[in-house]
Design brief:
- The protein has 11 helices and 8 strands.
- With 357 residues, the chain is α/β, with parallel strands linked by helices.
- The chain has a single domain, classed as Metal-dependent hydrolases (TIM Barrel, Alpha-Beta Barrel), CATH 3.20.20.
- The chain is globular and about 50 Å long.
Length: 357
């Protein structure tokens, strides 16, 4: 990289850092990552990954389609500008990101002071070589899904689907309207916002099953709530997606109660786990959150047909560090070096859940 490119990357990193700090504070996510780090301990500009050190794709299984290489470009809320070392299969899906817009009011009745808009995310898609995405309702908006719906309309049904946040009292007409805009799932918090009762969760699951939608389950940093709810989740009539590795705690990782619960749910035939938000449970911290690798490898080896990948862009909960999304995407090649398995995780599995119609 020449001096001009270095200068541009540094300026981009400074601007992105300011944006992330503001977004983290605005969305109530302004807390330190769980690993122990002093200010200045970690370099903020971590976008210069060494492709020679990235595990190459295994050619064990032939993949016929021409894969998509990302391009070098700046994307807001993402460190660095270089593309991933690994290409993406055609139709690759980022199954977890948010859109924040100052055109919509939060639950506090005011707009967020900074936005992470559709155009910003499209820049990230170009950088990563990603074709499609799942827009997940952002918690600052509560059960007002107006921002989500507007984003889905801008992306279009070919390029996006959505996961909405609703109350148990949501009407069938409201669900049907969300479905017309591309919503194919409902987000359920088990330790935040309004936590549904067991009866309410079962009722929402039945309504999701009627539409062939998923329930997207959100864990918690302080409690292993996926483990606590395992028996209930195992009996739901719809597919469920466990967000962010289930927030399985480190350093226990694959030996944690949460990881064991997720494995049992996957064995039950209706559960998927999303490899996203590494910083939520990592203790080793940035830039690569490597202590989460063992858990990711465990899930991929056990049931690749039940694994999804998500960026969690624009990373408000990563505060105060700025993940390099190209590096995060390349980690998938380390967890799943077989190109056919990566295609399954990035294309086949999300197609089954979100593009079935």
């Amino acid at each position: 990289m020449n001096a001009t490119e270095n200068d541009r990357s540094a300026v981009s990193s400074d601007a992105t850092r300011r944006h992330v700090l503001m977004l983290g504070a605005a969305t109530g996510s302004a807390f330190m990552s769980p690993h122990i780090a002093q200010a200045g301990e970690i370099k903020q500009n971590i976008g210069e990954q060494n492709c020679a050190s990235v595990q190459p794709a295994d050619a064990t299984h032939k993949v016929d389609a021409v894969w998509v290489r990302g391009i070098s470009t700046d994307a807001p809320f993402s460190s660095g500008a270089m593309p991933p070392c690994n290409a993406a299969p055609p139709g690759a899906v980022d199954t977890h990101h948010h859109i924040f817009s100052d055109n919509f009011l939060t639950t506090e009745g005011k707009p967020l002071p900074i936005s992470a808009e559709v155009k910003d995310y499209n820049a990230l898609k170009r950088r990563l070589g990603i074709s499609r995405s799942i827009v997940v309702a952002a918690s600052p908006y509560g059960t007002d899904n107006s921002c989500l719906v507007a984003a889905l309309d801008q992306f279009g049904l070919d390029a996006s689907r959505g996961v909405a946040l609703v109350d148990p009292e949501v009407t069938d007409a409201q669900l049907d309207e969300l479905g017309r805009h591309g919503v194919r799932g409902l987000r359920i918090y088990l330790a935040k916002n309004r936590v549904p009762s067991v009866v309410e969760l079962r009722q929402l699951a039945a309504r999701a099953a009627d539409r062939n939608w998923v329930l997207q389950i959100v864990g918690n940093r302080d409690r292993e709530v996926i483990f606590e709810w395992t028996n209930v989740l195992a009996r739901l009539p719809c597919n469920i997606v466990i967000d962010h590795f289930g927030w399985a705690p480190q350093p226990a990782g694959p030996k944690s109660n949460t990881a064991g619960a997720i494995r049992r749910l996957i064995e039950g035939g209706r559960a998927y786990v999303k490899l996203s938000g590494l910083y939520l449970s990592s203790r080793s911290g940035p830039p690569d959150y490597r202590d989460v690798d063992e858990l990711a490898l465990d899930f991929v080896r056990q049931s690749p047909e039940r694994v999804l990948w998500g960026s969690d862009w624009p990373h408000p909960v990563a505060f105060p560090y700025i993940p390099d999304d190209a590096l995060m995407f390349d980690k998938l090649a380390g967890w799943a070096p077989d190109a056919a398995i990566r295609q399954q995780i990035l294309v086949t599995n999300p197609d089954r859940l979100f593009w079935f119609d």
